[in-house]
Specification:
single chain, mainly beta, Gamma Fibrinogen, Chain A, domain 1, five-stranded antiparallel sheet, 7 strands, binds calcium ion
């Protein structure tokens, strides 16, 4: 990765994106994100474009992911600003704060829920018990509950999502 790179697109999901709509976070992807954010000051930029054309975003001041041995734990800190409203760092409920959480997949239950949140909600993520923000749900179905609660209530209203690293 070039040292000049100021922003890196991590994940883009949508009907017209270059990746398959069902592209999902995997452990291999998290290793790349860990390497990109290790020892650096990075913003996390989250955006959700709705089918009605409006685009919502949230910008987190500090973002990194730990290594495999620490189960790709999510770290967010500093200010969060945007039109989505913060639901990852200070979600309004300690059971839904995502910063500090490990990554859970179908076969690795690292979350604080009684069951496996990835199985229950159909996608890997940094679940607590379980979430108010979840961008890896089953694409464009009402089964994708509460992608960004309460601003975006179900997956059918979403046209495209993306997660991006921006350098300070
Ligand atoms: Ca669990």
């Amino acid at each position: 990765m070039s040292r000049c790179t100021r922003q890196v697109l991590l994940v883009n999901r949508g009907a017209h994106s270059s990746m398959a709509p069902n592209n999902t976070f995997v452990f291999g992807g998290n290793e790349v994100v860990h390497q990109l954010t290790k020892g650096k000051n990075s913003f996390l930029y989250v955006s959700i474009t709705l089918v009605n054309g409006s685009r919502l975003y949230e910008l987190y001041d500090r973002f990194s992911i730990s290594n495999e041995g620490d189960k790709y734990r999510l770290f967010l800190a500093g200010d969060a600003t945007g039109t989505l409203g913060d639901k990852m760092l200070n979600s309004g409920s300690s059971s839904y704060v995502l910063s500090g959480m490990y990554f859970t997949t179908y076969d690795r239950d690292n979350d604080r829920g009684g069951k496996n949140c990835a199985v229950d909600w159909r996608g890997g993520w940094w679940f607590n018990a379980c979430y108010s923000a979840f961008l890896n749900g089953p694409w464009s179905t009402e089964r994708w509950c509460c992608p960004w609660h309460p601003t975006v209530r179900d997956g059918t209203s979403i046209k495209e999502t993306s997660l991006m690293i921006k350098r300070h």
